[in-house]
Amino acid sequence: MKKQPIQSATALPPSPDEERRSRMIKYVIAMSLRFLCFFVALAMSFPPTWWTLIPVAGAVILPYIAVVLANTVVQPRISAVERPGSLVQVMPSPLTHRPGADG
Q1: Is residue 64 in a domain?
Q2: CA within 20 to 30 Å of 85's CA: 15, 56, 72, 102, which one?
Q3: Could you give the 3-state DSSP secondary structure of residue 45?
Q4: In this structure, are residues 13 and 78 in contact, taking their beta carbons and an 8 Å threshold?
C-alpha cells in the first residue's frame, strides 16, 4: 500500500489578499521613487545639465516598471497541493471480537 504524503498548511500558496497586498506595496514603493525622481529633476533643472537626464529617465521609466511589478504574480516554488486520495477500506482482522457474535 502506497503511503500518502502528509499535507502541510505551509505548502499552500499565499492567499489572494496577501498576494495582492505584496504587489500593492511594490507598486507604492516604485511610484514613490518616481515621485522623488520627478522632484530631484525639477531641483536639478536650473541650470539644466546632462545630469538632469538621470532623474528624468527614472521618472519616465519607473511607471512602466511599477505596473509590471504590480501585475506580475510570482508563484513560490513549492510542491503542488495534492488532493487526498480515496478512503481506504480497512478489513477487520479475524481475531477481533465483533459485537453480537457469541462463541
Answers
A1: yes
A2: 15
A3: coil
A4: yes
Residues 30, 62 contacting (CB under 8 angstroms):
yes
Determine the Cα–Cα distance for residues 33 and 41; give it in Å rounded to an integer.
12
Condensed to tens digits (0 to 9), the pLDDT of residues 30-89 reads 999 999 999 998 988 888 888 889 999 999 998 898 888 888 876 666 555 555 665 566
In a domain, 54, yes or no: yes
**Rg of the chain, C-alpha, whole Å:** 30
For cell 478512503, name the residue. 87
Give the domain extent around 58: 15-71
Under a CB-based contact definition with an 8 Å cutoff, are residues 36 and 30 in contact? no
Tell me which DSSP letter residue 22 carries: H
The number of folded domains in the chain is 1
Residue 98 domain-assigned?
A: no
Q: Whole-angstrom Cα distance, residue 86 to residue 55? A: 61
